[in-house]
TrEMBL record:
This is Activator of Hsp90 ATPase homologue 1/2-like C-terminal domain-containing protein. Residues 133-272 form the Activator of Hsp90 ATPase homologue 1/2-like C-terminal domain. Keywords: Membrane, Transmembrane, Transmembrane helix. Residues 109-130 are annotated as: Disordered. Signal peptide: none annotated.
């Protein structure tokens, strides 16, 4: 069963439990009052407070408490707003249905920003910036892990490199952690983290760096390997840096992704200039 279908099924079960809880409360209250009346010779002889006490003393009160719990928990789970992750799953599931196209986008934050893509099939995102530095100087910012970790994470995130082998076929692993106070961010690997597993496919000093990356995520919308090409093109005494991301996973929103790439390039400019 798809995760989106399972989510709606659980909401339906929660709603049924909530309704059962309400009915249980009403019925137990009715039975409790009837039992309280049966314990008194005359209703006029006792006030409403005494009748309520008698109801509480009866075993039926336990059923009413159980009903209240079922009603509260069931209705809360059934009627609570959809989380961002649930909305992404629903959108991705809709895009996978033949003939279905979703036009709206979901706002997200962070490196390779999370949010459902509105484009079916492989997608390419790109960003560029001209930086006051030579191609050789910029290239070393890609292969020195101590420098790389200072500029690659976009605004609002910090990075930690756990493995780094800057050679063709070499692997690397980076953990990106969200530092902001915003509660809207949802990481791909955990609540506030993106874990990136990558490979270096090609390194040409002073010209380009080609990588293949994948996200460690339980969400299928972030599955698959994305190819990232960094190009360094001389422009007088400056260098035009272009990043091209191919086969972008469906769970990454185009607008926020390109904003994150632009933020990363600004960081690179600040570090090397």
């Amino acid at each position: 069963m798809k995760k989106s279908s399972l989510s709606f099924a659980l909401r339906g079960i929660s709603l049924l439990l909530g309704i059962v809880g309400i009915l249980l409360v009403l019925r137990s209250t009715e039975l409790g009052l009837a039992k309280a009346d049966s314990l008194t010779s005359s209703q006029d002889e006792y006030g409403s407070g005494t009748r309520f006490w008698l109801v509480q003393q009866s075993g039926i009160a336990a059923y009413r408490t159980l009903g209240a719990i079922l009603a509260g928990v069931g209705l809360f789970q059934a009627l609570r707003p959809l989380s961002r992750l649930e909305m992404q799953r629903i959108t991705v599931a809709a895009e996978q249905e033949p003939g279905v196209h979703v036009a709206d986008s979901l706002p997200t934050s962070g490196f390779e920003q999370g949010g459902a893509s509105r484009v079916q099939g492989p997608r390419t995102d790109t960003a560029s910036r001209t930086i006051q530095a030579s191609p050789q100087k910029l290239y070393w910012a890609f292969v020195d892990p101590d420098v790389l970790v200072r500029w690659l994470p976009p605004e609002g995130m910090r990075g930690k490199i756990e493995r780094f082998e800057p050679q063709a076929g070499g692997a690397y692993r980076m953990v990106l952690t969200h530092e902001g106070a915003s509660g809207s961010f949802e990481g791909k690997s955990s609540r506030d983290r993106d874990i990136v597993e990558g490979r270096f496919l090609e390194l040409v000093p002073g010209e380009k760096v080609v990588q293949a990356v994948a996200f460690d995520s339980p969400d299928p919308s972030f599955a698959g390997e994305m190819r990232i090409i960094w190009k360094l093109e001389p422009d007088g005494d400056r260098t035009k840096v272009t990043v091209v991301c191919e086969q972008v996973p469906a769970g990454i929103a185009k607008k926020e992704h390109e904003q994150a790439l632009a933020s990363t390039l600004r960081n690179l400019d600040r570090i090397v200039s």
